[in-house]
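Handout, section 3.2

Students often ask what a structure token actually looks like in practice. Rather than define it abstractly, here is a full record for Glucose 1-dehydrogenase. The first block is the sequence as you would receive it.
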Amino acid sequence: MKADQPHDKQGLQMLLKDKVAVITGANRGIGRAITQTFAAHGANVIACVREAKPETLEWLGSLAKEHGIAAQAVSVDLADEASVKAAVRQIMAAAPRVDVLVNNAGVASGAIFQMTSMTELRRLFEINFFSQILLTQGLARSMTRHKTGSIINIASTAAMVADPGTLGYGSSKAAFARATQSMATELGASGIRVNAIAPGVTRTDMFDQMTEAARDKLIDSSALKRAAEPQDIANMALFLASDLSSFVTGQIMRVDGGMV
């Protein structure tokens, strides 16, 4: 099966049948690939997007029809704490339980250390870290009541590889990766697993924002000598969301083509 094709239910066990999965940043890039893959494996999906546009609703409707699942959109602005809290209330009202949460939404910004403004640094942390923690706190309550759940945080190899210009973005993702381990430690007693995925350079909107030189440097430093496709990340998310990874928690899973 090609990397850019989602696993489907033909000839494969439906790994997430009847589970409820919440995915942030669900309408493009990695989030879209994860949403499609989860739906193909039988999950009822709640797609968190900044704005539920008609094309997003049409796409979710087609997923529901194709895979026989429920799919709905929830609007949330991760730069607005009130919006995050409202989204938690809407999700909890719509779903009797949440089995999987994928914190995928985020923003990227590049500037060298001396040119990084405090305003931009705060914006990056608000969206990439603080809002994700707030959302997870709210939805983890449902998982705790049901004594089960898988939380998947999308970090980045930028959290570990200190390339020039990545102070803000890399630091926000490093904080998220570290928080993943604390969450895993504290929520494990309630049967909740928490892991992070650290993608390398991936063909998304952020890929297009990078300079060609920066992309080539990262690709050349990997063993497989190519950029990741969103489906590569979705496949790891499927593993972590499913019972195949029932004894995996507190891990930062690098999906970077072998950046050694």
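Discussion prompt for tutorial groups: The CA atoms of residues 87 and 161 lie 33 Å apart. How would you have guessed this from the sequence alone?
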